[in-house]
Specification:
Order of helices and strands: HHHHHHHHHHHHHHHHHH
Number of domains: 2
Helix content: over 70%
Structural class: mainly alpha
CATH topology of the largest domain: Serine Threonine Protein Phosphatase 5, Tetratricopeptide repeat
Radius of gyration: 24 Å
Length: about 375
């Protein structure tokens, strides 16, 4: 009975590193650059549309391995692991190569099995290691398989080796270290004094100072400063979803990097955690607008965010602009015109935004 209890413990913890691995490996090895690759939870409607778009492309190109991988990853983000498994298999059957895709295939099988490393998943991880003996995700799960069979000491040794070899800012490192700590506690060992443990400490995380500095840099310089830290923060927030400040920083950093979909996701989480903060709603609405553009009807989430912002801060200039877009989408050009004319009156004479507001007013007059 004790071994069964240990197995359940290790299965329950599998999702911890799995979520980090999903974020860390997302879109790698696809052979194609995806539109706005997400690293955090994406709204269900957007993911459903993404999956539908890929399925339509596959109808015309059923042997396209990159499309199959893209579909599999979309299913993973939706939590549809049982659907991701055959999609990954189709990618591999149609020529997808490399350790990463084999490892992702194995991980999807683990997640579909509620965290248990099945025999089929083991085969995939072994195939990954045959291609790349250092493949981190496969190494983690092979150790997890040992743990689930009661071989906790063996698993611990493998995880410590992986921790020592992992870069300090590797997206999965914090979760891996937590798994080592938990396993050591289960065995009655001191996590801080385990034999062979001495890897690098956790990476510095993204700060407001980084954002202020990045705002003054060129896009390539911003990428160099922010990209890795932003990915690390996004991965940590998968496990610590109640960190309001973390989501706010992620939203700002993602905007600076031009990843508006991730920014939208971050602000969506922020408004859930602090719904009475008008700035959260402003940033959320801005991100929705950046993702969808306003040359087509904006999604209902934009109207909802605008209403919340207007209720919290009726005089906010952003709110006037956003509500004008909502009224325009509803076909109420008179209402949109009134809002934008009010906005024009409120903007300072030297405001660079005046020209854009006037352009929109002229478009309304022209029926646009």
């Amino acid at each position: 009975m004790k071994s069964l209890g240990l197995k359940r413990l290790m299965i329950a913890g599998a999702g911890l590193i799995a979520a980090a691995a999903i974020a860390a490996y997302l879109w790698l090895g696809s052979g194609a650059v995806p539109p706005n690759p997400p690293t955090a939870t994406v709204p269900d409607a957007a993911l459903a549309q993404q999956a539908e778009d890929i399925r339509k492309q596959l109808a015309a190109a059923p042997a396209d391995a990159a499309l199959w991988q893209g579909l599999a990853r979309t299913y993973v983000l939706q939590g549809k692991f049982a659907d991701a498994v055959p999609a990954y298999k189709s990618a591999i059957d149609n020529g997808a190569e490399g350790a990463a895709v084999q490892s992702a295939y194995g991980e999807a099988q683990v997640m579909a099995a509620s965290g248990e490393v099945t025999d089929a998943a083991l085969t995939a991880f072994q195939a990954a290691l045959a291609k790349d003996a250092g493949e981190s995700r496969a190494r983690y799960y092979l150790a997890l398989a040992d743990a689930q069979h009661g071989k906790l000491h063996e698993a611990l040794d493998q995880w410590i080796a992986l921790e020592n070899e992992s870069a300090a800012d590797a997206p999965w490192r914090k979760s891996l270290s937590a798994r080592i700590d938990q396993t050591a506690d289960t065995l009655g060992l001191d996590p801080k004094n385990l034999p062979g443990r001495g890897g690098a400490g956790p990476a510095d995380e993204l700060s407001i100072e980084d954002l202020n500095k990045a705002a003054r840099l060129t896009p390539p310089e911003r990428e160099k400063l922010l990209a890795e830290k932003t990915q690390t923060l996004a991965t940590r927030l998968q496990h610590e979803p109640d960190d309001l400040k973390g989501w706010q920083i992620l939203g700002l950093a993602s905007k600076l990097l031009g990843d508006h979909r991730q920014s939208m996701t971050a602000w969506q989480q922020a408004v859930k955690l602090e719904p009475d903060n008008s700035q959260n709603w402003t940033h959320y609405a801005e991100a929705i607008l950046a993702v969808h553009g306003d040359d087509q009807k904006l999604p209902p989430e934009f109207a909802d965010a605008t209403r919340r912002l207007r209720a919290l801060e009726p005089k906010a200039l952003e709110g006037l602009f956003f509500e004008g877009l909502v009224e325009r989408d509803a076909g109420n050009t008179t209402g949109a015109r009134a809002l934008w004319e009010e906005l024009l009156r409120e903007l300072p004479e030297d405001s660079p935004q005046r020209a854009e507001v006037q352009r929109r007013l002229d478009a309304l007059a022209g029926g646009g």
